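[Meeting: bench + compute handoff]

Bench side (C.D.) handed over the final construct sequence. Compute side (W.E.) agreed to return the predicted structure before the next meeting so the bench team could plan truncations. Sequence as handed over:
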Amino acid sequence: MNKIKFYQNKNIKLNGTMYKPYLIGKLPRRFAFIYNKDKDQDGIFQWFNHKGFTYIEKKDDMWWSNL
C-alpha cells in the first residue's frame, strides 16, 4: 500500500520520496525532455499531476537548484 503525506507548503511525501508542486506556467526549463546532448544535461521526464499541480521529485543536489 502506498503511503502519502501532505505538507502545508503543498509538498507531498509519497513512499518516502519528497515531491515539489509546480503550476503549469512555473515548470522548470528541464521539464519534459530526457537528455540535452548540447548541454550534457538530463531532463525531467517523470512527474505526476494532482489537484491542479504537477509534482516533480525534489532532489537536494547542486544541479537541482539551477532549474
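W.E. noted at the follow-up: The mean pLDDT is 82. C.D. will use this when planning the next construct.
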